[in-house]
Design a protein that fits this description.
Blueprint (H helix, E strand, L loop, with lengths): L7 H35 L1 H29 L2 H6 L1 H9 L3 E3 L8 H14 L5 E7 L2 E7 L6 H13 L3 E5 L2 E7 L1
Parallel strand pairs: 1-2
Antiparallel strand pairs: 2-3, 3-5, 4-5
Helix pairs in contact: 1-2, 4-5, 5-6
C-alpha cells in the first residue's frame, strides 16, 4: 500500500522513468564501455576520457534509480517519520508537527503519500497524533485537481482512515 502503483497513470509514469531515464543511461554506458575497450588497445588517453564519461553516466543512472525508489517509498519515512520526510520533499511548503508521535509504518506511509499527492509549494501541512490515530490537514493555496484528490483519498482509505476535502483543505484521520 505504499505507492499508488495500482493507479494506471502512476504505473505509466514509473515505466517512462525507467525506460526513458535509467534504461537509456545504461544503454549509453554499455556503448561507451565497448568504445573504451577498443580504445584501451590503441589510445590510452581516449580510453581514460571514455572511462570518465562512463563514470558520470553510471552516477546519473544510479541517481535515476534512487529517484524512482524514493517515489515508491522514501527511505527517510521509516527512519524519521512523515513530517521530516515531507519537509525534505516539499521545499517551500510549511510542515507543522508539534504533537506528532510515531505510528505503524503503514499509517505513516498513508499520511505521507496522502500529503504528497496534493502538495503545492505554498501549502501548509499539519500532522498530529491523537489517541490511536494520526491526523493530518493540508491547507492548499489553490484548487487541487480531482485525480490528485482521488489518489490522496485512496492512500487514506486503504489504511482504514477517513478522508475529507473542501475548497482549499484536505483532512484525514488514520487509525493506528
Amino acid at each position: 500500500m505504499y505507492a499508488a502503483v495500482d493507479d494506471v497513470g502512476e504505473r505509466r509514469r514509473l515505466e517512462r522513468a525507467l525506460h526513458d531515464g535509467v534504461q537509456q543511461d545504461l544503454i549509453a554506458v554499455s556503448v561507451r564501455l565497448q568504445l573504451a575497450r577498443r580504445a584501451v588497445e590503441s589510445d590510452a588517453a581516449e580510453a581514460q576520457a571514455l572511462l570518465g564519461q562512463i563514470r558520470e553516466e553510471v552516477h546519473a543512472a544510479l541517481d535515476g534509480v534512487r529517484k524512482i525508489a524514493n517515489d515508491l517509498y522514501p527511505s527517510l519515512l521509516d527512519a524519521r517519520g512523515p513530517a521530516e520526510t515531507l519537509r525534505g520533499a516539499v521545499g517551500a511548503a510549511r510542515v507543522e508537527a508539534d504533537a506528532l508521535e510515531r505510528h505503524p509504518p503503514e499509517v505513516e506511509a498513508a499520511a505521507y503519500f496522502c500529503c504528497e499527492a496534493v502538495l503545492e509549494p505554498e501549502a501548509v501541512i499539519r500532522l498530529w497524533s491523537e489517541p490511536g490515530r494520526l491526523r493530518l490537514e493540508v491547507e492548499l493555496p489553490r484548487r487541487v485537481d480531482a485525480a490528485r484528490l482521488a489518489a490522496a483519498r485512496r492512500y487514506v482509505e486503504a489504511a482504514g482512515g477517513a478522508f475529507t476535502s473542501t475548497s482549499g483543505r484536505v483532512s484525514a484521520s488514520i487509525p493506528g
